[in-house]
Known about the structure:
Elements: H1 7-20, H2 27-37, H3 52-55, H4 64-71, H5 75-92, H6 95-105, H7 122-128, H8 130-138, H9 142-148, H10 154-178, H11 186-198, H12 208-220, H13 223-246, E1 254-259, E2 262-267, E3 273-274, E4 280-283, E5 289-290, E6 295-297, E7 303-308, E8 314-316, E9 325-327, E10 330-335, E11 341-343, E12 346-348, E13 351-361, E14 367-369, E15 372-374, E16 377-387, E17 393-396, E18 398-400, E19 403-404, E20 408-414, E21 420-423, E22 440-443, E23 446-448, E24 464-469, E25 475-477, E26 480-482, E27 485-487, E28 491-496, E29 502-505, E30 507-509, E31 512-514, E32 518-523, E33 529-532, E34 535-537, E35 540-542, E36 546-551, E37 557-560, E38 562-564, E39 567-569, E40 573-578, E41 584-587, E42 595-597, E43 610-616, E44 636-639, E45 651-657
Parallel strand pairs: 2-4, 3-5, 4-7, 5-8, 6-9, 7-10, 8-11, 9-13, 10-13, 11-14, 12-15, 13-16, 14-17, 15-18, 16-19, 16-20, 17-21, 19-23, 20-24, 21-25, 22-26, 23-27, 24-28, 25-29, 26-30, 27-31, 28-32, 29-33, 31-35, 32-36, 33-37, 34-38, 35-39, 36-40, 37-41, 39-42, 40-43, 43-45
Antiparallel strand pairs: 1-2, 44-45
Amino acid sequence: MLRHIPLMAVVSAFVAAGLAQAPAPTPEREALAEALAQVGLTLDTAKVDPRHKLLQAQAEHCLPLYDVLQSDPYGAMDWTRVLGRGQVQAGTGPLVEALGQAGARQGLQVRRGWIDDPFEGLAAKLDADPAAVIAASTGADPAAAREAVAAVPPVVVRAAARILAATASAVEFRRLAFEGLHSIPEADLRASLAWEWSYEPGGPPPSRALDAHVWHAYAEVDWSYLLCGAEDLALQIDAAVAELKAAPPEGEFLAGVTTPLGTVVLAGTQPDRHDEDALLIIDCGGDDTYSAGAGALGPDRPVSVAIDLAGDDTYSSDEGFRFGGALGGYAFLWDAAGNDTYACPRGTEGAGVFGVGVLVDESGNDRYDSDRVSQGAAVGGIGLLIDRAGDDWYHCFENAQGFGATIGTGLLTDVSGSDNYVADDTTIKNPSAQTAEHNNSMAQGAGEGPRRDYIDGHSLAGGFGGLADAAGNDTYSCGVFGQGVGYWYGIGLLADLGGDDSYSGVWYTQGSAAHYAIGILWDAAGNDAYKATHNMAIGAGHDYSLGILLEDDGDDTYDAPNLSLGGGNANGMGLFVDLNGSDTYRVSAGTTLGRANIGTRGGQRDLMLCLGVFADLGGGEDTYPEAYAFARNGAMWSQPGTDTEHPLATECGVGIDR
């Protein structure tokens, strides 16, 4: 029986249709084609040259989506809308669909529960004896389990049994996922990953030999099996939450069941303090305080789930991998109501490192605070933060707020409310290579791969990092690398679907990318303000990268630096498209408004395209700087490369205002 059609199936169908036939003509495509014709290019030829893969750096584990987007940058605009809307839609639906969609972005096709029910017969067992299901699923003593839950409302016992039945399945899928890991003991893998991506305090960095084993581990883990276990958990967590909300438990109680996999804690509506890294916590209400919970550290703690139904709760810990943070396992935190506070330094708030970490917050004005690898971040696996309502505050430093590294999909989805996203650039903790006065953020829709051409030549491609905000007047701020940014074959996407928004960043920001990567910022509506202070911003691509800024509607203001507004550098491509509104452009340097710069002459780069495209295609009266007299309403232009004494036919810059 067909149970549901995951969103990833719709995306897969879009892939097939897009590859099977040419995109239909649209006014924006026709205008772009007209502008490109000035320099002898077409929509088919005006793109990042694919020969760079043969002649330049290689990277293992490049996502299939990478080639789809880079092979057709104009079709990538359609893809962007599908991906952004799809992320929001998945954030409002069953959790299993959100996980399936995330897996599809890294090339996995796992659809647990799509046709057959993997838990067929479970309902009858739950009706008959949920305590027996708890014992059978966890290895607990049956008599002790039955006695422990005797005073607990039946709906809570049933919900716990549901989730624990899925826990048994997840543990087995996790075993299958890691049983092919031969190059490195799992304990060493975990220690190396924790140091590299979470910067655990104390101790020396792993040796280069260990680092090489980690490189092999990406190929040895079975990522599909890992996703299977996560989807099974999601199926039963969705069902358990629905049952608990349909018949809210009342009264005060507190019960604990000891199992070989960890403790099961069932609490009533009183305020509680949870200090144990439990296998499962179900808390039915009260203003609760958590210093632990929903943190997986496999294989010692392969699964950890927490569900809190109500109350203004505080989740706070100085240790990492808690509150929806997983290192080598599965961690799920679901908070159904209340104004909540989350504070944890790393590996938290929807983070998966060789694992799957999920945080769902359904309502309330919430505060999320972390350092790195958090708020929808993944390094091998999946990290999801889904906030469905409220005016929220997100604060991080690095690798967060929609961040994906190798074979990782990290997604932050905020469905409603006016939100504030901060990748801290005031307290300088991790100075960037570009400017020591600013932090490296790699946040707010960022995909990054480890670059190793200057170390041992074993580079890895980045993953997919996506931040999607559906509504509200939002504020985004970051340092270097943020707001729809890619690095080293990574893909970063920031999608904002509505509201008057403000974007501020420094360098490599707002739809930009460096070193064979893809970065996209799409804002669908509202009067928005963009400001970047240094270089490579607002639709800019560097070193065989594709950077896109797509603005669908609104009277927008752009304060742009050098290499911006359709700026291509070192054989990269920058694409800027504003479709509607009376817009204001303020720029401070020359490689902008549709211009390209290959750089040093005399090498193979001279033979490959470097492209900058600027297009303002909507109605309204736009304002351009007086110093750029060629850019004006109703005009079309082309610009030479910045080295006018040594011109190259492969340096192409075009602009159009309709």
